[in-house]
Amino acid sequence: MPNRAHAMSSFAPVWDEALLRRYDKSGPRYTSYPTALAFHEAFTPADFTQALARSNTGRRGLSLYVHIPFCEKICFYCACNKIATKNRQLAEPYLSRLDREMVLAARHVDTSRPVEQLHWGGGTPTFLTLAQMGDLIDRLDARFGLSSDPGRDYAIEIDPREADVFTLRHLQSLGFNRLSLGVQDLDRDVQRAINRVQPKQLTETLMDEAHRLGFGSLNVDLIYGLPRQSEPRFAATLTQVIELAPARLSLFNYAHLPTRFAPQRRIDEAELPGADEKLAILRRSIEMLDRAGYVHIGMDHFARPEDSLAIAQRNGTLQRNFQGYSSHAQCDLIGLGVSAISRVDDVYAQNPVRLDDYAAALDDGRLAICKGLRLNDDDLIRREVIERLMCDMRIDLAAIGERFAINAASYFETSLAALEEAERDGLLTRDGLVLEATPVGRLLIRHLAMAFDTTLTQQSPARYSRIL
C-alpha cells in the first residue's frame, strides 16, 4: 500500500516548547470552511432543498448525522448542544419530529443513492431505549434506505454509563459497525471534578464486548487540560486505554470558555492545569501513542495503521466534516435534529440550537433550517485547500490550480507569504508549490490552514479554542 512505511514511522515531533507556545493561538478547527460563524439567517429552507436537488445529479453517496440532545447528567466540561433530563419520555416527541424532518428532506433526495455513512451524536444517543433506537433506525431506513454493505461506516457515540453488553448487541443488530466511547479520563479525582464518575470497569467491559462482537472500529475520546489533571496522572489513564487497544483515539484539548458554555462555570479554574503542565501532558501522550504504534492522523486524532481512518489518509480519501475526520470522502451530509448541520453540494445549512424553535418549524410543516451559507468560487477553492491540508498534511497547490483553472502561485501569493515564518521555524517544508507539514507542523496544522482563510479578519479570535 503506498506510503505505508512513512505512515507507520515515528510521528513524535522534536519538542520545542518555546516554539509551540509562540504558535499556540486561537483558531478554527476547520470542520468546515468557511466556519459556522459565517452562516447567516438570509439562507432559507428553499436554498437547502435546491442544493439537495442539485446534489442528485452528482450521484454522490449520502451521509446522515442524527443529533440526540438528551443527557441524564451534565458533564461540566461539555460544550455540546444538550438537554439535561431524567425523563426518558421526552425522546418520543423528539423522534416524531425527526421523522417529519426526514420526510421533508427525503422529498428532495434521490433515495437510491447509498447511505454510506451514518452517525448518531449528542448529547447521549444511548439515552434512547433499545426500542426507541430500533424505531429510529426503521424510520431512517424507510425514508432514505440504509445499507448493509460491509464498507459502510455506521457509528454511534456511547456513554459507558448509559450502555451495557445488551446495548452493544442491539446496536450491532441495527447495523452499527463502529462505536465511539466517551471516556475523557479514568482518574476518579478528575471525574469528580467534571461531574462524570465513570468506573474503568464500565469502559473495559464494553470495549471487551465490542471486540468480541467484531465491531469494525472502536474509538475512545480523551480530554487533556481538565481540572486536577497532571502529567503522571493522565499518563496512567492513557496507559490503561492503550491496553484496551482501541482502533482510534481522540485526544482533545479542553477549551475553558465559561462565558459561552454555562456548565463550565462549575469548574474551579484554580484546579485547571497550567500551560506548562498541559504541554507536558500532550508531549508525554504523543510519545506513548507513538511507542504503541498509533499513527497521528492530524490535530487530536490517532489511529492504528490498519484502521480505515489511517488507510483513507494514505489513499488520499480522508475527509473532514462536522464530526471530525471521516474515511468516507465525497458524501453529501444531511444533518437531522436540533443544531444539526448539513453539507450538501455547495451549501451548509444549520437547524436551530433551541429545541422549541426546531419543534415549532416542524410542527408548522417546514424544514427547520435557520441559517446557512452558499459558497462562492473562492470559498470552494479555499475549502479544498484547507480540507486537503487538514487531511493529508500536505497540499499540492499546482494540482489545485489545474483543477480550478487558476494561477495558483499568484492566487495564493498572500497565503504563501504568511507561511514563510512557519517554514523557517520548521512547521512545514516547501518544494515549489507543494507544502508538507512536519511532525511538529501536524500538531499546529490549524495554524497552517489559517494562512489560506480569508474570513478570519471578520471574526473575533475569542470565538475559537486554542490550538494546543
UniProtKB/TrEMBL annotation:
<dbReference type="Pfam" id="PF06969">
    <property type="entry name" value="HemN_C"/>
</dbReference>
<dbReference type="Pfam" id="PF04055">
    <property type="entry name" value="Radical_SAM"/>
</dbReference>
<dbReference type="InterPro" id="IPR058240">
    <property type="entry name" value="rSAM_sf"/>
</dbReference>
<dbReference type="InterPro" id="IPR006638">
    <property type="entry name" value="Elp3/MiaA/NifB-like_rSAM"/>
</dbReference>
<dbReference type="InterPro" id="IPR010723">
    <property type="entry name" value="HemN_C"/>
</dbReference>
<protein>
    <recommendedName>
        <fullName>Coproporphyrinogen-III oxidase</fullName>
        <ecNumber>1.3.98.3</ecNumber>
    </recommendedName>
</protein>
<dbReference type="InterPro" id="IPR034505">
    <property type="entry name" value="Coproporphyrinogen-III_oxidase"/>
</dbReference>
<dbReference type="InterPro" id="IPR004558">
    <property type="entry name" value="Coprogen_oxidase_HemN"/>
</dbReference>
<keyword id="KW-0479">Metal-binding</keyword>
<comment type="similarity">
    <text>Belongs to the anaerobic coproporphyrinogen-III oxidase family.</text>
</comment>
<comment type="subunit">
    <text>Monomer.</text>
</comment>
<dbReference type="InterPro" id="IPR007197">
    <property type="entry name" value="rSAM"/>
</dbReference>
<keyword id="KW-0560">Oxidoreductase</keyword>
<keyword id="KW-0411">Iron-sulfur</keyword>
<feature type="domain" description="Radical SAM core">
    <location>
        <begin position="56"/>
        <end position="292"/>
    </location>
</feature>
<keyword id="KW-0949">S-adenosyl-L-methionine</keyword>
<keyword id="KW-0627">Porphyrin biosynthesis</keyword>
<keyword id="KW-0408">Iron</keyword>
<dbReference type="GO" id="GO:0051989">
    <property type="term" value="F:coproporphyrinogen dehydrogenase activity"/>
</dbReference>
<keyword id="KW-0004">4Fe-4S</keyword>
<comment type="pathway">
    <text>Porphyrin-containing compound metabolism; protoporphyrin-IX biosynthesis; protoporphyrinogen-IX from coproporphyrinogen-III (AdoMet route): step 1/1.</text>
</comment>
<keyword id="KW-0963">Cytoplasm</keyword>
